[in-house]
C-alpha cells in the first residue's frame, strides 16, 4: 500500500474505471467508505454475476452518480480534500455497490444491509426477479434515489449527455 494508492486490494488500482474515479471493488463489503463502487465479479465466487463490463454510457452514469453525491452533500473544502485521493471516499457515506448481471441488467446493495434482499433487484433466478425484472443502470439509480427523487431528477435533467432518457 502506498500513499498514492492507499486502498490496498480493496479496490483495483489498474482497472480502467479507476481513471474515472469509479472504485472497482473486490468485495460486496469493501473496507473503505466509497461513495459508490462497481464490483468486478469473479464468476468462480459469484456464479450469478456477469463478466460483462459497464459500457461507456454506464461508466459515465456511475461517475455522475458519484458527482451528484459530492455536489449535493459536500462543501468546497471537503471536495478539495477528497480530490487528494485517487478515489472518492467520505466518512459519512453508506457505500452503494453496483453489480452488472448482464446487458442492461443491474442491481445494487448498500453495505449496511444485513437482512432482507442483498441486492435490488435480486440476482437472476432469485425470487425478487419474479416481480422486478431486469433493470437498466439508470432505473436502479432511480430506485436508489426514492427518498430524494426531486434532487436526483433535477440532477439528471441538467446532465442530458449522461442521462438522455
Describe this structure in words.
The chain has helices spanning 56-73, 76-82, 137-144, 149-157, and strands at 24-25, 36-39, 96-102, 105-110. It has 165 residues and is of the alpha/beta class. It is globular, with a radius of gyration of 15 Å. 24% of the residues are buried.
Topology:
Layout lengths: L23 E2 L10 E4 L16 H18 L2 H7 L13 E7 L2 E6 L26 H8 L4 H9 L8
Parallel strand pairs: 1-2, 2-3
Antiparallel strand pairs: 3-4
Largest sheet: 4 strands, mixed
Strand order of the largest sheet: 1-2-3-4
- Summarize model confidence as the mean pLDDT: 86
Structural class: alpha/beta
Radius of gyration: 15 Å
Number of strands: 4
Which percent range fits the helix content? 25-40%
Unreliable residue runs: none
The topology string of helices and strands comes to EEHHEEHH
Number of helices: 4
Q: Report the sheet-strand fraction.
A: 5-15%
Shape: globular
Q: Separation of termini?
A: 41 Å
Notable features of this structure?
165 residues, alpha/beta, four-stranded mixed beta sheet, 25% helix, globular
Quick structural gist:
With 165 residues, the chain is of the alpha/beta class. 25% of the residues lie in helices and 12% in strands.
